[in-house]
Amino acid sequence: IWAVLMKRHKMALLMWQHGEEALAKALVGCKLYKAMAHEAAEDDMETEVYEELRAYGKEFENIALEVLDYCYRQDDDQTQQLLTCELQNWSGHTCLSLAVTANHRALLAHPCSQIILADLWMGGLRTRKNTNIKVIMGLLCMPYIFKLEFKSKEELQLMPQTTEEHMELENDDDDKSDSEKNQDGD
């Protein structure tokens, strides 16, 4: 049984290394290994099998966190898009929803995830300096509510929700930069 587990793990790592959506594949691998470890524990299998499956799940958990951290250090805006765009190969899930499904607390605690979650929590409220203090002051002293700043309707509509919307925004940005270059060249 050890040889089979080892071969399958090597195959899982090989499949993770090749192709696209590395973060999503690492999160799914983490979830699958955790589920298999849970089943092994319930079936009263050998403790070694349970521990091995748990260790493999932990390895994929670490891989996912390393990928996220690397991407975040390269470009934080693109990484936020990576976490929030819908993945067609994974039933429309996002990497963030896969992390929740896999109960990957370290990934959810990562600064990039926290920025996204805070933005979702605040909704249309503009998150700048001392937002929490302003909200508390607004609760205590009602006229202070007018000091709160909200995102404009256009800003809220510009926030992409799907992969297609991300691509449209990128194409619009590319078109704008091309037209600016053409104007500079004239």
Helix-strand blueprint:
Blueprint lengths: L1 H16 L4 H21 L4 H28 L1 H9 L10 H7 L3 H4 L2 H12 L8 H10 L12 H6 L4 H23 L1
Helix pairs in contact: 2-3, 2-5, 3-4, 4-7
Structural commentary:
With about 190 residues, the protein is mainly α. Helix content is about 75%, strand content about 0%. It has ten helices and no strands. The chain has helices at about 1-15, 20-40, 45-75, 75-85, 95-100, 105-110, 110-120, 130-140, 155-160, 165-185. Helix 2 (about 20-40) packs parallel to helix 5 (about 95-100). The chain is elongated and about 65 Å long.
Main sheet properties: none
Computed Rg = 22 Å
Straight-line distance between termini: 71 Å
Helicity level, as a percent range?
Answer: over 70%
Structural class: mainly alpha
Question: What's the pLDDT, averaged over the residues?
Answer: 79
Can you count the helices? 10
Low-confidence stretches: none
What are the secondary-structure elements, in order, as H or E?
A: HHHHHHHHHH
* Fraction of residues in β-strands: under 5%
Q: Strand tally, please?
A: 0
- Tell me, what's the shape? elongated
Outline:
This protein is mostly helical. The chain has ten helices and no strands.
Key features?
186 residues, mainly alpha, 10 helices, 73% helix, elongated
